[in-house]
Design goal:
The complex is a heterodimer of chains A (121) and B (106).
Chain A (H helix, E strand, L loop, with lengths): L2 E5 L2 E3 L5 E8 L8 E6 L5 E7 L7 E3 L7 E6 L4 E6 L8 E7 L10 E2 L3 E5 L2
Parallel strand pairs in A: 2-11
Antiparallel strand pairs in A: 1-3, 3-8, 4-5, 4-9, 5-6, 7-8, 9-10, 9-11
Chain B lengths: L3 E4 L2 E4 L5 E7 L7 E6 L6 E5 L3 E2 L7 E6 L2 E6 L9 E6 L5 E2 L3 E5 L1
Parallel strand pairs in B: 2-11
Antiparallel strand pairs in B: 1-3, 3-8, 4-5, 4-9, 5-6, 7-8, 9-10, 9-11
Classes of the chains: A mainly beta (121), B mainly beta (106).
Amino acid sequence: EVQLVESGGGLVQPGGSLRLSCAASGFSFNVYWMNWVRQVPGKGLVWVSRVSPDGTSTRRYVDSVKGRFTISRDNARNTLNLQMDSLRPEDTALYYCVRGTTNGATIFDHWGQGTLVTVSS
Amino acid sequence: DIQMTQSPSTLSASVGDRITITCRASQNINRWLAWYQQKPGTLPKLLIHTASTLQSGVPSRFSGSGSGTEFTLTISSLQPDDFATYYCQQYDTEGTFGQGTKVDIK
């Protein structure tokens, strides 16, 4: 069974940093693209970032987080990370770790339960 | 950036109704479009990808069509379990979602 378990969310002041992690199990992590998607409770879905299976060849970000967020993965530990710096109140959301595909298509078939990030003074 | 616009934002319908949701892309995305269903307090569920390919386990009353910039999601006979919010998502370039269409009970 595919499992994605996020951690690392919390309350942080504007300008601060957080590091989100996602522990993956139940599938061959090292052949899948992985993503972060966020959702303000009660609002819509926003794709945030994705990383290629090898962790280095492709990293992509939505424009609103470019230069502030960094996605990474550790295939030896089946872990996906999101380093979030220079956080802003508008980054407040539930952040989901989401499995993509093996061929690079940004389709989301398995979602973690999410970790809540609140940016507020 | 590719923008996705869904209509309507809210749709009121009854059990047994045939409903259609439209999704428009700001530029040609070929058939690189997916649809998701999300119920309150639950995770999004992939229904359709490549505009019309039903994900495994999704009931056949759901169907998708379109290409280029205009797409539709149709539910042929609305069931009680289908009252939810539906999102389209393009994946021609990264992954942009529409704003969602809430299907509620008339």
